[in-house]
Amino acid sequence: MTFNPVPFTQVTLNDSFWQPRQLVNREVSLPHVYAWLERTGRVDAFKLQWRAGDPNPPHIFWDSDVAKWLEAAAYSYADFPDSQLETLMYKVIALIASAQQPDGYLNTHFTVVEPGKRFTNLRDRHELYCAGHLIEAGVAHFQATSQRTLLEVVSRYADLIDATFGRAEGQKRGYPGHEELELALVKLYRATGKKRYLELSQYFVNERGLQPHYYDLEARARGDDPAAYWARTYAYLQAHAPVREQTEVVGHAVRAMYLYSAMTDLARETDDESLFRACETLWEHLTTRRMYVTGGIGSSGHNEGFTSDYDLPDLSAYAETCASIGLVFWAHRLSNLTGESKYVDVLERALYNGVASGVSLNGRGFFYENPLASLGNHHRQEFFDCACCPPNVARLFASLGQYFYSTDGAEIAVQLYGQGSARIGDLTLQQVTEYPWDGRIRLQIETSKPASFKLHLRLPGWCTSYRLSLNEQVVSPTLERGYLCLQRKWHSGDEILLDLEMPVVYLRSHPLVASGVGRAALQRGPLVYCLESADHSGVSVHHLMAPKEASAWRVEKSTDWESVITLQTEGLQFDASAWNKSLYSTQIPTTQPASLTAIPYCLWDNRAPGEMRVWLPLETR
Amino acid sequence: MTFNPVPFTQVTLNDSFWQPRQLVNREVSLPHVYAWLERTGRVDAFKLQWRAGDPNPPHIFWDSDVAKWLEAAAYSYADFPDSQLETLMYKVIALIASAQQPDGYLNTHFTVVEPGKRFTNLRDRHELYCAGHLIEAGVAHFQATSQRTLLEVVSRYADLIDATFGRAEGQKRGYPGHEELELALVKLYRATGKKRYLELSQYFVNERGLQPHYYDLEARARGDDPAAYWARTYAYLQAHAPVREQTEVVGHAVRAMYLYSAMTDLARETDDESLFRACETLWEHLTTRRMYVTGGIGSSGHNEGFTSDYDLPDLSAYAETCASIGLVFWAHRLSNLTGESKYVDVLERALYNGVASGVSLNGRGFFYENPLASLGNHHRQEFFDCACCPPNVARLFASLGQYFYSTDGAEIAVQLYGQGSARIGDLTLQQVTEYPWDGRIRLQIETSKPASFKLHLRLPGWCTSYRLSLNEQVVSPTLERGYLCLQRKWHSGDEILLDLEMPVVYLRSHPLVASGVGRAALQRGPLVYCLESADHSGVSVHHLMAPKEASAWRVEKSTDWESVITLQTEGLQFDASAWNKSLYSTQIPTTQPASLTAIPYCLWDNRAPGEMRVWLPLETR
Questions:
Q1: Cβ contacts of A505 on chain B, cutoff 8 Å
Q2: pLDDT above 70: residue B457
Q3: How far apart are CA A282 and CA A265, in angstroms?
Q4: Distance between alpha carbon B327 and the CA centroid of its chain, in Å?
Q5: Residue-number span of the structural domain to which B468 is assigned
Q6: How high is the mean pLDDT of chain B?
């Protein structure tokens, strides 16, 4: 069962969870990020006016920041054409085009800061990574506007890269140090139909990690000692072994997700069973060993990536926003390739938690890191020197609709729930629901003529009990690969009511995940909850204990945010003074009653700054 | 109350815990380490025969490995003069002396591998660190043999360093990138009485972290960009701020301990109150935020050091053996400077657990890292490329007696317990005890004539109840700075019986130490216990739960090791299959009864290889 996502331009969200975020993304984040790109010199870098000795040289990853913004802008424009945005996009595209060299080369850093060093340090210098983001922007702009300006610019650059790299005589046998170009080339192939882009992507993926190792040769050619590589191991960039021999998710988490996404794309486009098997193995390893309950991935700031199995500290979690976005990308590809809902379960977990936490409700603050506990010193920032996350969130939110529905033409799958509608061919599907605040979903079908197809309704992994009725008659669907399936001839006005029971549950972590032992994570529907100082004045949230049974939590409307559901209960507050003088004590802390209020993890740090905790110690008595 | 340690040459240990380790250290580890030093070219490096293009160039830290072995050999020789060892020491010393340059310079790496680059990269290249270890070896050899050969060699080198570094015109204002020389210079000052060595140590400590930053200037002088520093921050080597302004233990843990040891030495030698205050603040931070229950320190392998407060993962703990040894050094200095027993509590914790675990019972295997849980893949090795730990353990064990007793002349303090004797001036103190296996300690005094002094008996921090009698009469001592004090005129034959109650206790960690939440560490006396696969066939030790009350554990003699006490109880084994497909599950695992056997942490991985766990989940029912 292989699906294609229904494009976001066919999908409208008017729910209370995502629609406000999409609105803020469009009206606040996009201009905000652009202002920062301009203020920091990233836009003007394309003028190529920097000269040795000038301050603020174009950095090796700047091009990608601008490209990701442009991609986000194009998605936004596709849904909400806006002449101001159109003008701005043209201005930026003209600048980018003006920076293209006669032979097609297009990179501000190497053109002005390190001329002559082009393609000499793929390992460290993000050159092909930037190329990938430019290509994604070119494809997005073309799809949004049918204008080929940027598409042609990036195609010329892709042609140069295609001529430069490969296994033919005189070509370099290199591949991206920071993966990204691989998945971009698949998009370029799909947009242009030119098979050589697909083949170039295949080459990059297949060449990765072969011996003799390109990064060894490349380092020696620069006069560097390969053994002096700062990251010490090519596992940092998933080049320690050929990709089909990789069985563990390792290294820099964003790089890993972009590579695995490309591998999944190629497995699909070329029917490559061995690539798909590698993806399955890596997925299994990620989700059973190295993923936070929020869908955050990459525990350590050291390598911005993976460490060892079960090493998922809460307080010091890195869990970069971009890595969870990358996980969404990968899970989306796998779910559509296989038709398996288990991938959407992880996609949903990452999207509603680890990704949504990455941006403030006002659209002006961003987390780079998304820890699962805080001592009160972690807050969103307006921008970063390494600014990957803000435009990455922007492009995801601007194209969010594509994750909700998929189809193979004959069949339709509802992968995510949320109020809104989708046009799929001749058909319109309406969702009326308060999801994720409530599990009741009404699906209405509008069609000009009756149509036979199998409707797939995802049964979320978190749901253990549901009721399904069609036109007010209870029906018994088949369960296929995690979807409730109804095959029939559908008529306009058909109405399905899916009632997903959405109790408050405690998730318990694998016994080797230290941050979860003796604790539970509170979840309701797709949302992981946390305790935050703003609801607990006068007591550290780290000194609160939750009741033994999840059913002791009450579902209550938030008084701070419209539509939001908080969870409340009576728990205990313990006395931590035994540890004032030492980390260890023989004393069992005394306790007293305390009221607990939990909010969705993705909403923390949107009120008064303070502490936060996801994994809650449970009362033992 | 300021004490001086009673030298190890005055102290004899004939207990069942340390004496066998000292014996193995002398008879197995010392020859074993030497063989590896030779086999790997570290000894021959002093012949200065390496030429460009040859394999195996002398590494920047090789000299320190040889020096630490020599220091250990000297200590061993002092207690057990042995002509074979004497001959070997002379051979090595002659080699070292032959490598000294006409101006006193003495470093194999810079002499043959990077001639001309002497003292141009203090930040990264371990040059002054090696100098410190050579000096410590020179002092140790002099004290053991009264021979001045090596002492004079290293004094000449120290003179060159003294002439090179300082604040005078034409001198370099540098200081060691890897601290060590600072404390070595204090030893050299004490051995030679030459004050300029003390002043040089003061200079190095006071200069550290000042602005303009020496490592910035030094990098630029090499043509390097200071911002490209691989460790990113001078906190890595405790040079981010002047030492008196440092309030948090940061960076590479061994470096930190050696610096703080030197700061404590200087605070003592120069009555420097501000240095002492800095040490107190750093100590408080270390012990209330960043120390494992085993006395291990430095959570992360990335920087071999400290990360963030409460970040003490068990499975991925780095907790380098050398760092715990450094903690013993520092705690020893603070305990003698202040007369406070709280420092000895930490010293004892580190020594019996995080240090003792560093070497196998057969003396041929070494841990570099000392995690608090293992999946079964962590085992001691014969040697390491970075070989700091084996000779560091060897020198500590060979001089262990110095940690047991201290005196200020008029008063005598028993800091550690263990069967054996000490000669202190005219007096001999005998300890008859099974400590650490039993808390009953009989102290006998032998003296040629009655002597008046205050005897300090440390009341260990782990002990909450004791009985003390003198000549079979119960006495009530005063409690001073953690010591039970008896002031009287002592006669030969006086006998004290100190009975320290030594129940099995559960230590509970600060609620922010994730690896301890919902779990307890089992401790009896100074020993932290663990579960190991060898005692639990057919079940993962990570799936065992301990009874709610520590009193449920029975004290039993080990059947595997003589004298060793194991702890046994009936607990539960839980079914972890709920997490086979995901790290997170709503299921509460089912349990069944299981027998648990705990062994001292320091003994794990001495039988069949397998899993290990210190922090034990507790039954909740």
A1: 586
A2: yes
A3: 15
A4: 5
A5: 407-500
A6: 96
Q: Is residue B44 part of a domain?
A: no
A473 and A518 both lie in a single domain: no
Catalytic one of A71, A127, A136, A304: A304
Considering only CB atoms, B230 lies closest to which of A230, A287, A574, namely A230
- Say whether both A515 and A613 belong to one domain: yes
Task: Please give the average per-residue pLDDT across A125-139, as a whole number.
Answer: 98
Contacts of A324 (CB under 8 A, 6+ apart): A294, A295, A296, A297, A350, A351, A354, A355, A358, A370
A414-431 burial: b if 16+ Cβ within 10 Å, else e: bbbbbbbbbbbeebbbbb
End position of a domain, from candidates A485, A500, A515: A500
H or E segment at A616? strand A615-617
pTM: 0.90
* B420 and B20 Cβ atoms separated by less than 8 Å: no
d(CA A81, nearest CA chain B) in Å: 43
Amino acid at B72: A
From B304, B348, B532, B611, active-site residue: B304
A514/B509 CB distance under 8 A: no
In this structure, of A10-24, A253-267, A501-515, the range with the lowest mean pLDDT score is A501-515
Query: In sequence order, which residues have a C-beta less than 8 Å from that of residue B84 and are 6 or more positions away?
Result: none
How close A587 gets to chain B, by Cα (Å)? 7
On whether residue A557 sits in a domain, the answer given is: yes
Check which CATH number belongs to the domain holding A481 and give it: 2.60.40.1180
pLDDT at B477 over 90: yes
Nearest CA in chain A to B618: A518
The structural domain count of chain B equals 2
Q: Is B322 a catalytic residue?
A: no
- Catalytic, B388? Answer yes
Of B287, B302, B464, the CB nearest to A582: B287
CB contact under 8 A, A617 and B518: yes
Mutate to test the interface with A, among B540, B582, B601 (most CBs of A within 10 A): B582
- Average pLDDT value for residue range A313-324: 95
Does B515 score more than 90 pLDDT?
no
Dihedral (CA of B208, B211, B216, B217) sign: negative
Could you tell me if B508 and B494 lie in one domain?
Answer: no
Q: Which residue of B has its CA nearest to A292?
A: B583
A·B CB contacts under 8 A: 154
Q: Which residue among B500, B522, B556 closes a domain?
A: B500
Residue-wise pLDDT tens digits, B44-103: 999 999 999 999 999 999 999 999 999 999 999 999 999 999 999 999 999 999 999 999
Instruction: Express each pLDDT in A30-75 by its tens digit.
Output: 999 999 999 999 999 999 999 999 999 999 999 999 999 999 999 9
Among A464, A615, A620, the residue with its CB nearest the CB of B620 is A620
pLDDT at A8 over 70: yes
Question: Do B488 and B530 belong together in one domain?
Answer: no
User: Which tokens hold the place of B538?
Assistant: 């057919």
pLDDT at res. A620: 79
- Based on the fold, state whether residues A456 and A529 are members of the same structural domain: no
The answer to whether residue B213 sits within a structural domain is no
Nearest-angstrom CA–CA distance, A430 and B281: 63
**CA end-to-end span of chain A:** 49
* pLDDT value for A517: 81
Q: Do B518 and A521 touch (CB under 8 A)?
A: no
Q: Do A519 and B518 touch (CB under 8 A)?
A: yes
Please tell me whether residues B509 and B606 are part of one structural domain. Answer: yes
Domain shared by A418 and A495, yes or no: yes
pLDDT exceeds 90 at position B514: no
Q: Check residue A589 and give its pLDDT.
A: 87
Instruction: Report whether pLDDT(B621) > 70.
Output: no
- Render pLDDT for B144-170 as a digit per residue (tens, 0 to 9): 999 999 999 999 999 999 999 999 999
Crossing angle of helices A195-207 and A253-269, rounded to 10°? 130
Are residue A550 and residue A584 in the same domain, yes or no?
yes
Q: Do B506 and A586 touch (CB under 8 A)?
A: yes
pLDDT at A621 over 80: no
